[in-house]
Amino acid sequence: MTKVVVGIIGAGRIGQLHAKNILLSDKYQLKAISDVYTDHLKDIDYLKAVPVITQNADDILNDPEIDAVFICSSTDTHIDFITKAAKNNKHIFCEKPISFDIEKTKETLEVIKETGVKFQVGFNRRFDTHFRKAHDVVRNGDIGTPHVIKITSRDPEAPPEEYVKRSGGLFIDMAIHDFDMIRYLSGQDVKNITVKASSLVDDRFSRNDDVDTAIITLTFADDSLGVIDNSRQAVYGYDQRIEVFGNNGMVQVENQKPTNVKVSTNAAVTEDKPMYFFLERYNEGYIAEIHDFAQSILEDKPVVAKFEDGLQAELLAKAAKLSWKENRTVELSELR
Amino acid sequence: MTKVVVGIIGAGRIGQLHAKNILLSDKYQLKAISDVYTDHLKDIDYLKAVPVITQNADDILNDPEIDAVFICSSTDTHIDFITKAAKNNKHIFCEKPISFDIEKTKETLEVIKETGVKFQVGFNRRFDTHFRKAHDVVRNGDIGTPHVIKITSRDPEAPPEEYVKRSGGLFIDMAIHDFDMIRYLSGQDVKNITVKASSLVDDRFSRNDDVDTAIITLTFADDSLGVIDNSRQAVYGYDQRIEVFGNNGMVQVENQKPTNVKVSTNAAVTEDKPMYFFLERYNEGYIAEIHDFAQSILEDKPVVAKFEDGLQAELLAKAAKLSWKENRTVELSELR
Amino acid sequence: MTKVVVGIIGAGRIGQLHAKNILLSDKYQLKAISDVYTDHLKDIDYLKAVPVITQNADDILNDPEIDAVFICSSTDTHIDFITKAAKNNKHIFCEKPISFDIEKTKETLEVIKETGVKFQVGFNRRFDTHFRKAHDVVRNGDIGTPHVIKITSRDPEAPPEEYVKRSGGLFIDMAIHDFDMIRYLSGQDVKNITVKASSLVDDRFSRNDDVDTAIITLTFADDSLGVIDNSRQAVYGYDQRIEVFGNNGMVQVENQKPTNVKVSTNAAVTEDKPMYFFLERYNEGYIAEIHDFAQSILEDKPVVAKFEDGLQAELLAKAAKLSWKENRTVELSELR
Amino acid sequence: MTKVVVGIIGAGRIGQLHAKNILLSDKYQLKAISDVYTDHLKDIDYLKAVPVITQNADDILNDPEIDAVFICSSTDTHIDFITKAAKNNKHIFCEKPISFDIEKTKETLEVIKETGVKFQVGFNRRFDTHFRKAHDVVRNGDIGTPHVIKITSRDPEAPPEEYVKRSGGLFIDMAIHDFDMIRYLSGQDVKNITVKASSLVDDRFSRNDDVDTAIITLTFADDSLGVIDNSRQAVYGYDQRIEVFGNNGMVQVENQKPTNVKVSTNAAVTEDKPMYFFLERYNEGYIAEIHDFAQSILEDKPVVAKFEDGLQAELLAKAAKLSWKENRTVELSELR
């Protein structure tokens, strides 16, 4: 195999993003796209070269020519599509979260293990050049043993109330990426989690039994500590910073800016605000993750963001929500 | 009055530092210094101009010419000296913590209120140019209402075990400055506090029922959040950063470096490490705090770091220790 | 016309770079590539979709389906290909310099004017996001009237002696980009130029009557000043900075780094070195320039880097060489 | 000798600055101050401890108790005071420039040599922490052999016309500090100098046969190059940057800011402007230079900023003016 033949299930914003990057990659051949609605896809220029556009996902799942599927449909459909794809021996790239139901996620992990297909979860930030370098600095031992890992993760603006209602809440919808990143940087299991959270940005969160601002503290297996601070609204742009502090030093990643132009006037010295949101900030990470997935298939190597990583992040999200609700530290052992 | 006539009680490291800054200031006349040991003071050049060097603090406390005392002796002597000074109508500058016994601290507050003397506690960081500007940016409303306040506070190296034994522990010895700073930046009362802490740097802490690494989360009266991360050892130098994030923006203070020289070679681009420790980093703050204290006396203005601020910081330290010990969120109302 | 049908003449490093970017763009259809050697092109995967690969440039120049040509062959062939292409009514994108012979360049300008084809010269830096923003800040009047424009332009390592011999020298080979950039930023004609230059990096330059280090000062028509400093070897990477200083402020562009990871240890605080060389640094600029060229054709708009800009940069390179040789200020009027 | 007994001749702004720093230093005893006017000194609090305030400089020059004099009077009086002080065996600290007449400066150098007194010229920037570290990085060979040295030196606002008239012009009044700094960083003699300069900021300069904006290029003895850019008006504050680029790397010093507070809002990310002017920016350098002068006397060590350094800077200023006037490169050998 020199190219991975793929089908994409779900052609919303993220499905279209993957479609474009797949078309630009020389490691893939994009054979088919399915969605419950397909009308909006007719006007997209770069999709004209895709042979099959269908409303039936089975056209992809049953196609013997297709090596791998990208599952980008709504979260409640993931488990079903994953199970069918795995049973049909297709490698799977699945957007996060794998599901909203941890028991089902665990059962599905067994299916994946049995069939032996590759499974990569869409934790694109692991593939970001900056974060990956920070990760490598930690793994190389350049800063010694991590003592404290800090993540700042703030969106530029609150999503609409309709989105809030269906999102599953801040912990599963937003912090899940940070849970995965902190595990990726630490390399340790999480022992317990403690959340303090508030609704300060807008009433649409409290109205829906959700929060918009949170401080999440984690204790890892070796007693080192982690802390994540989330907000649904940073008016200056997408705020995505990490810091790993160890016994021999510290590694930090600052925000990315569109340009590094600096203007000095009588009034002030000003620089660019951070990039606006995830599409700008993680643009390269989205490309790198599908490149890496193809490499894993073509060279039969392990994936970087595994099913288990998806499961663990979901467990942390669940534990976080419980900690917030019950105002106490939650031991991960309670949930496993 | 054009100059404040002062006596200093306690001539250890911090007492000598204040003595030097007082001698260099044109707002003070330094009349006397007392310490249980005075031999070591004889060789200090700049102290030769001080008229009275005594082993008896009462020589200062009873001197009618002396307007104000600086109490820099060991913490267990503070309450006694404060009480005598206040009763003798002397203004008081007292190093932190005011005491290790909160009930006594509260009682002493009443004495201060009755006598009406000025009382300033040695929270020198409030007078740091950088932090003060950040504080002013917040007060001016430039970033809107604070939602999250973050403080990173790490010492460059762990103190000797002898010091650890007598220190009272990380929360009262080290984090107390951060508790005051977070109150200063927030302008809000603290509702509750939650601590996760470990001993990761060195056994000397766990051996003495202490920790060296901590994540401290605070909920303020308006439900906004604060988080402090402490470590007893940052190998790259004194790490003192703050960040206030609000609904209209963010203000940050980075570390100070000895120089801003940057060297680019084939190997790397390198900059200075942060200033080594508090004497370097807060040198100007130590000068500014005594200047401000003199102004408060000479112009009869309120002090910036009040007795109540000292008490509140001690309460937070006590609550933090309790939270760590009992592994739970502690409501400040439990302690008041 | 919805897509520009193009042929590329010359398939060396830069020709291949344009081919790849053209294939990835939805504004172009790449019909043909010619080169005196074509064997090396057979193994390049992404060229397999190109219908015509030929050793005869006329196959491109005479093809009536082709709307535009990219001239990426050696400098001595440019004038001939430009002339033929223009007479065949093809729009032209030509790499810099247009030629080594200014008289011929001037004559060819007349041909372009007569035929009315679009002509864009390969000054890709005008399309760099960072420099373009700096340019816009200046044009918007945010820093007032420019008084001093500074460009630092240093390559990461000296080219091999074979390259030095054929390069035409530092001024036409390397500084020509800086001459164009300083004109782009200033918006003014250059009155005179003064060069001080040395051979300090390596003997291969002095052996070939060339220099490797130069300070070039320019006086613009309004008496404002410019200064360019060039070196053939910056061991820390490609050094590309600009600064425009005006009566109301200053705009600066710093180097780009691969990541913004910062590592603090006991030894030092280190950051990434600048990106290695022009392919990394100006990667986006190469894409933006062909995008812009297509827009100019499809929407019949003026190009941003015109034939006249190529001619003016060549005149400045010639004047610079003369200034160096004769150790004097050269008035541009001497050459026009 | 444990303290240097000094007298200060000339009590204008710079004389008063030295007086204050001398009074705060434990290496000096300030015995006398002279000025043609002394009325304004009566109200200055910190001068009340100075035993002798006189209108006659001879009271200082002839006082056998005085070890050293600080000459801070107007430039036209320097040579006379230097000569008398040297003949009376007093060490001399003299503000720059030593004189406006290079022949007289040269003659006076002979007097200094004969008498053997210490002579330090007021090039305070050599004592700036940041520049001194950059200098040491160069001397340690960390960046190899310097190829290009760049200095940006811009004042925050143009001086009044009265000052311009008496200043001697930009090269002797302002650039002289930069000439000394570039010699200090290079460690090389200057071979030739080439100036391009304009009057762009304000007519008050052209009206007085002066310029306000200049690019000054220098060739050193080893053919390495230097470039200084000066402006009389940088609206964003005092702009004082240096860069030394060598065959093994580069060292840079950026501007100093009052605080490192950064504010991010929806509108922009803003930082402090550079410190306002030389009193703020070089405050520590002024203290360090008098400290170093005392050390040289007390420990009989060579001074860091010698008479010859003053002379060479004056020669460069003279050559620069000639280059500007005659629009040509001036060889320093023409002037020596």
UniProtKB/TrEMBL annotation, chains A, B, C, D:
GO molecular function terms attached to this record: inositol 2-dehydrogenase (NAD+) activity
Keyword set, alphabetical order: Oxidoreductase
Domain GFO/IDH/MocA-like oxidoreductase: from-to ranges: 131-251
Residue ranges annotated for the Gfo/Idh/MocA-like oxidoreductase N-terminal domain, each copy included: 6-123
Segments passing through the bilayer: none
InterPro entries: Gfo/Idh/MocA-like_OxRdtase_N (IPR000683), GFO_IDH_MocA-like_dom (IPR055170), Myo_inos_IolG (IPR030827), NAD(P)-bd_dom_sf (IPR036291)
EC number from the UniProt entry: 1.1.1.18
Pfam families named among the record's database cross-references: GFO_IDH_MocA, GFO_IDH_MocA_C3
Top-level lineage group: Bacteria
Family named by the database record: Belongs to the Gfo/Idh/MocA family.
Protein name: Inositol 2-dehydrogenase
Classification of source organism: Bacteria, Bacillati, Bacillota, Bacilli, Bacillales
